[in-house]
Amino acid sequence: xxxxxxxxxxxxxxxxxxxxxxxxxxxxxxxxxxxxxxxxxxxxxxxxxxxxxxxxxxxxxxxxxxxxxxxxxxxxxxxxxxxxxxxx
Length: 88
Hints:
The chain has a 4-stranded antiparallel β-sheet, with no helix packed on it. It contains 1 helix and 4 strands. It has a domain at 1-45. Helices cover 16% and strands 23% of the residues. By secondary structure, it is an alpha+beta fold. Residues 2-46 form the Anaphase-promoting complex subunit 4-like WD40 domain. It holds the Pfam family ANAPC4_WD40.
């Protein structure tokens, strides 16, 4: 068993591979997952990423930032359609 850090949800893992999340305020089952493996331990892990420092968001200084390259989806769609037509 493992408590969510805020104490509002209890995760219960069974050796058969079932995990249940239970809301402790109303004893309601919030989620059930069946995994095809024996469960030997359980812990909560935070997946939320912290926002980057504010200096990464400065658009006025003209400095290049580490942004993802622009993707032209219209061009991608056109190329995909061409490939599909070529395979007919």
